[in-house]
Amino acid sequence: MTTWVIGDLHGCCHEFDELLETIDFVPGRDHLWITGDLVNRGPQSLETLRRVYELREHASVVLGNHDLHLLAVAFGHGRLKPSDTLMDILEAPDRETLLEWLRCQPLMVESLTHQCVMTHAGLPPQWSLERARQYAREGEEMLSSRQFLEFLPHMYGNEPARFEPALRGNDRLRAIINVFTRMRFIDEHGTLDFSAKEGLDSAPEGFSPWFCFERGDTRRLIFGHWAALEGRAPGARANVRSLDGGCVWGGVLMAMNLETDQVVTVEARSRP
Predict the structure, then answer these.
(1) In the chain, how many domains are there?
(2) Which of 111, 172, 215, 226 has its CA 20 to 30 A from that of 239?
(3) How far is the C-alpha of 99 from the C-alpha of 50, rounded, in Å?
(4) Crossing angle, helix 129-143 and helix 148-155, to 10 degrees?
């Protein structure tokens, strides 16, 4: 069995299908990891979500911020933005099946065999792997629970900008989910900046990419989320692999073989 990790799909279903063909992916023989943001901004959000759902027994998916945005809008606690491409999902006859599956996906996936962890945005150096597992479970339990609808109005917000173990309730859950799905730049204490979303030169004063801080372990961290990095992590002081090649922005869709580290890409079919 070969395990392939694929970066953010963002509704680029044609490129996803082409990439699966290029890597000769065979369900039942091989397994997929996907770094989240399955939907939005691209032209085939519904087709992409359906395709991943069809492969669900052969794929491990983590939730990204755009996936959570879809859930918020679908359940009445978010607004569509002009750039969103989610209406086909919201009007689909199988929306309930797709959305219920999506909200039960994890925030973190780990493989002891490959000694690696996958999240959408990354892991801050202040979190040990043991703590990251605990915090991921807390967020996952809420998102998949009956209390999900009660929590949704409180999920969004930039405060608290730094996770503290003493946080409780909605503030704690919001901070956990923000780290797993929105983190880019942080300061030395783990405070998140939510304003800068471009390349490394857009870092606010006192902030650096989360992967430029040393960690207390050597586990490889696989992430997407940050298209401006174009699948790179310059200046990394942690063992990381960035896989968002910005396909939806005219870049590439990336896949990495976890056994060999081979990287395969397909070009975007269109450019914005």
Answers:
(1) 1
(2) 172
(3) 10
(4) 120
Alpha helix (H) residue ranges in 1-128 = 13-22, 45-54, 65-74, 87-90, 95-103
Q: Which tokens is 149 given?
A: 């609808």
119-133 pLDDT tens trace: 999 999 999 999 999
Question: Is 18 a domain residue?
Answer: yes
Cα 50 to chain centroid distance, Å, stands at 18
Rounded CA-CA distance 101/38 in Å is: 13
pLDDT-derived band at 94, boundaries 50, 70, 90: very high
Is residue 223 one of the residues assigned to a domain? Answer: yes
Structure confidence at residue 271 as a pLDDT band (50, 70, 90): low
User: What stretches of the chain adopt beta strand conformation (E)?
Assistant: 3-6, 31-34, 59-61, 108-111, 116-119, 185-186, 192-193, 208-209, 220-223, 240-242, 252-257, 263-267
Distance between CA atoms of residues 244 and 267, nearest Å: 13
Please give the model's pTM, rounded to 2 decimal places. 0.97
Residue 272 belongs to some domain of the structure: no
Indicate which CATH number applies to the domain containing 137: 3.60.21.10
